[in-house]
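INFO  loader      accepted 1 record
INFO  loader      residues=121
INFO  predictor   begin
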Amino acid sequence: MNYKAFNKYCQSLATTTYVVQWGGSHVWKVGGKVFAIGGWGYGKYPGVTFKVSEIAYELLRDKPGLRPAPYLASRGMKWIQHYAEPGLSDKELKEYLAESHRVVSLGLPKKKQKELGLNQS
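INFO  predictor   done
INFO  writer      dumping tokens
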């Protein structure tokens, strides 16, 4: 997945915002909280970083092409970076990005979730 496809997919998720920060990284947020970062690589497999559950972190952290996200994981946060082959397929990466969006949105205050129309069941 290149940055164009990454940005297009993240934009398709509910109530997202986009900003370029941290040295030119593509940063996607929901409710003001980061759920995905595209940056730190410009080859065929640019770095795509996303939040995961503890179980997913354990499953993904040693998979070829994936690693604990620099800076974030060293501070105890459960974030994974997709950076090389074989990594994840585009379909799998989209699933993890959607899950990151969901997990981050669930961490927002209930009032903010309601304002944004998120997680209303």
